[in-house]
Amino acid sequence: MSDPNINPMVFLPARFFLPGLKSQYLHGPKPTNMSIHISAQPGEIAPVVLLPGDPLRAKYIADTLMSDVELVSNTRNILFFTGYYKNTRLSIGASGMGIPSMGIYSYELYTKYDVQCIIRIGTCGAYRTSIGLYDLINVETAYSESTYAQSAFSYQANNFSHQGLAYKAINDTAQRMNINLLNGAVHSGDAFYSSSGQLPTIALENNCLAAEMEAFALFANAKYCNKIAAALLTVSDIIPDRKMISPEERERSLDKMGKLALESAIQIGINS
Ligand code: HPA
Description:
8 helices; 25% strand; binds hypoxanthine; 272 residues; alpha/beta; Rossmann fold
């Protein structure tokens, strides 16, 4: 692996882009160990992080299921909290929506805060009517047409799998808690809205259970950084039926997924 702390896209000098700029502005951002999009101090983020898309979902889980919680970053209102679940120090924050946003936050967590494991918790739209609202999916592999992994790391693959032991910890924990889980592939799409009305070819060809928009970036980053990553999703809509749960119901559906993710996180055995 090359040095993940220096992203050449970020650290090109300003003069590269703006040839006419006055000399005092020509230095450009220097490589530092500071995170650009997360303002927590070193050590304020735990080695295992839960990552919903929505900052208010992160706050809801931190407030209702964790103890001794502190807000450690609020840059752009993308909230990160660190606290405890049953004596294990954990963090929870938001990835934002979509592959580029997940790409930024998970990369900074892995490379600037020495995070070892990220568990995405999110919603997805099922591609089949045999899957029900509120069903839970533990993602084996995320397929995408996105160029993210090619642009970031020159990876050519159109799919990345979960990385490390978190996936199995989620399966084992669900079994112990008597929670039914589906396992399989998902499609991490770039477009939530599309004009075609057809299921995407990549999803059909690869037997994808559902659509979501972030797991591909998380798994590609984890692979590049040699870290642990899993994605646990609640089915919030059934795409062929156009059925969906309301925003209020979405919040309540979080309780089961949040509890399963927290219980799994403490099984992973990484502490600080
Ligand atoms: N598409 C993409 N992401 C989603 C969906 C969807 O239908 N539902 C929830 N997240």
